[in-house]
Amino acid sequence: MLKIKRVPTVMSNYQEEVTTEAVGCGRNCLGKCCLQVSNLPLYTFSSDQNSPKSESFLSELLLAQWEEKMRQGLFRYDVTACETKVIPGPQGFIAQLNEGRHLKKRPTEFRVDQVLQPFDPAKFNFTKVGQEEVLFQFQNGGTINKSYFLETAGVNPAIAPNIVAINVSPIEYGHVLLIPRVLDCVPQQIDQDGILLALHMAAEASNPYFRLGYNSLGAFATINHLHFQAYYLNIQLPVEKAQMEMITQRGLRPESEKGVKVSRLMNYPVRGLVFSEGNTVGDLADVVSKACICLQQNNIPFNVLISDRGRQIYLFPQCYAEKQALGEISQELLDTQVNPAVWEISGHIVLKRRKDYDEASEASAWRLLAEVSLSEERFEEVKEYIFAAIGVVESKFEVNNEEKQKAEEEAMLDGNMFEPVASHFQEGCLVVE
């Protein structure tokens, strides 16, 4: 059985101190009264897709600061001491033992049967987080030639800053939160700007082991304030190895030859869609945000995984909390106290009890995740909602049989190598007109 040992990937001695001049409430938090008179580190990235991306700049900076926060004792436990292993089997599910995490993380303070709920300033939100938990501001510099970092910079009072902060109850090494426009107090719901910012962060990190995740309300988000999670895990996630079947191609521009591809996951316990490519990162963000907004408006909980440096996005409509409320989840699964959110659905399963960790098997992991998934009938119905939202119509095209056979053979290769998973293309393809 393969066990995973975490080795810090940062060789830098970089350290910094967050300096503030906060006045007002005196709490030195991310609220307007404190933040707009504070100095925080600033990372500025280029939105120009053709600008060169460093393969280590953002990652080294983020991880060095994250490790410094760990040395300062800001986390509720040492996640690097948690046991982690790969469960034997074709899927390669990853199990982590994190005893007591559910007792140390913040409790959910809102209803789980409504995906859209108004922001409530009286409940916990990220304006109440201390500035000592912040790593840096993450701002779009437009078409600047390259990214840059300032150890201290004032917060622009005219623009609500995007903040990268530690997750004080981490799941993995380098676990952070990306909080778009923190002072705008946007509830936990997807919009195009938020998705676009997350894709820029994934591209900026330029590391295949850095992924971002999103949980909607009703799909195990615990805070009703817009945020994405992200961390490093130096192994391919099971969902990234899963076979896919392309079912649509969406060209946002009439003259374009290649648009956003939409595929369906195959032979995976949770039914989901995969969005990739696109003419620009903005095109990909537009399609994915429309799909997510459609789910939100139809009160369908969902999870999102951003993978492959922001070039591949997995969307999982789910129903675990609904089935739990209806008493349709077995007591055996409830006793594990696992809330299957984006990381669990992607194949990285955080277990709370030693017994569950020691006895973890591919069958038990599959059984848990299968309860998350929509039924085939319901998934097809939801898929039609999404297709209507992003505007697709059916069209036919020819597939070269030799290319199709080659793709099928490649998909059967050992999944331990981190290479893009070959797609199986069906003969009926959907395109946008």
TrEMBL record:
Q: Does the keyword RNA-binding apply?
A: no
Q: Name one GO biological process term.
A: glucose metabolic process
Reaction catalysed?
Answer: GDP-alpha-D-glucose + phosphate = alpha-D-glucose 1-phosphate + GDP + H(+)
| Catalytic activity, EC | 2.7.7.78
Q: Which domain of life is it from?
A: Eukaryota
Boundaries of every GDPGP1-like C-terminal domain copy: 238-390
Q: InterPro entries in the record, alphabetically?
A: GDPGP (IPR026506), GDPGP1_C (IPR058865), GDPGP1_N (IPR058866)
Membrane-spanning residues where? none
Q: What is this protein called?
A: GDP-D-glucose phosphorylase 1
